[in-house]
Amino acid sequence: MKSASGVESDGTIVVVGASLAGLRAVETLRSEGFGGRIALVGSELHLPYDRPPLSKQLLAGEWPPERCVLADRVRLDNLRVDQLLGVRAVSLNSSTRTVGLEDGTEIAADGVVIATGSYPRELPGTNALETVQALRTLDDSIRLSERVKQVGDGCRLVVVGAGFIGSEVASTCAAIGCRVTVVEALEVPLSSALGPEVGSVVASLHELFGVDLRTGVGVKEIVESTDSTDGSGGRSRARVLLSDETSLTADVVVVGIGVLPSTDWLEGSGLELDNGVLCDASLFAADRIVAAGDVARWRWQRPLAPVADATPVRIEHWQVAAEAGVAAARSLIAGRTSAASFDPVPYFWSDQYGVRIQMLGRPSPDDDLAVVAGSLKERKFVALYGKSGRLNAAVSIGKPRELMAFRPLLAGGTSFHDAMHLLN
Questions:
Q1: Which of 240, 310, 381, 384 is the most buried (most CB within 10 A)?
Q2: SS3 breakdown of the chain: % helix, strand, coil, rounded to 5?
Q3: 316 in any annotated domain
């Protein structure tokens, strides 16, 4: 019989993932009175750090790496955390809640928080190429920054994928003197998230700031070569062959085509895995096992969509990861019968070319769209997304105060019609 009670205050909790969600879970466990052992397992040697600066301030050389740290060793020591950094978790037995590490260590826990995040999708055949990389970790950002500096002014950068991360990399590198080309398979970048109208507005920023954007075209192959006679100093260069039979020469290729949840280590764990760790409304994946952040796919009891849509969701936002870490820890302490549902109003932002794009809720490309402030043409607006008469999301460029007025409406399930008249 599975227990529905919470973890005893003097037990052991293993937090797998030294991520934003993992750190927030640790902090919440202590603030909620948990006095037992907390083991924080992280595959990277780094202390928990913030990811948004990786494609912006750190990449541009404006911040040193230590400024990205979310909690230093003094903070973790004050939280009384066993720091198991630089070691991967490789297994979990959900029945005994035993976590196995790659060094052979096994930790038997009374509770487990899964916060292993996600990892970048790869272009087939490119993982061994020196000139090709993703941007997901602190080391990725440092390596990309160093490569760009090594090449110097006029570094030719090809970004594959005009999503938010790819666009931020393009923006940052263009600002520090790179010649940037962005390749996007969709005809309209971000149309799968924001719809074609708003996606076109965001995409227009590339051209406005001198970045070559090529849409409706994919990458067939990337071929790498080294020629010490071409003035490159013996550095490898890449030729990016596109589906329209054109090609691009690049000193660096950054692949930003999305991420996948990091669940490989959970195969055979007994947990249900399907595009993430499947969880209930309170983030429980099993008795005394919760998940948070990019890896969690939970049943949103009151989704910002028609109530009949009970499909589990996985949201890759900084704010959702932070709030989920808090909620998962509280659920673990409360137990399954008493835990509250995790019901956030998702918030996301992206800084590109000196412009901040902000989003509340969950827009869909087939939603009804209404611009309620400013205009798309001026690239300064608030646009609402709705479906079946219900407000689903609000997106803004350059109007943060007006955008935030819609947060309580999204939380309260306001109708699309009523939301359209809020600013009148």
A1: 384
A2: 25, 30, 40
A3: yes
Distance CA 89, CA 339 (A): 27
| 340 in any annotated domain | no
> Considering its fold, how many domains does the chain have in total?
3
pLDDT at 423: 83
Domain extent for 111: 12-119+259-334
Measured CA to CA in angstroms, residue 236 lies from 59, 250, 342 at distances of 21, 9, 48
> Looking at residue 301, what is its pLDDT?
73
Q: Is residue 50's pLDDT more than 50? A: yes
For the chain, give the longest Cα–Cα distance: 72
Strands (E), 59-169: 81-85, 89-93, 98-101, 106-108, 111-114, 118-120, 132-133, 156-160
- Give the CATH number, domain containing residue 283: 3.50.50.60
Task: Please say which residue of 212, 233, 255 terminates a domain.
Answer: 255
pLDDT in tens, 289-300: 999 999 999 998
And the tokens for 275?
Answer: 């595009």
The pLDDT score that the predictor gives to residue 177 is 95
User: Hey, which bits of 80-194 come out as E strands?
Assistant: 81-85, 89-93, 98-101, 106-108, 111-114, 118-120, 132-133, 156-160, 179-184
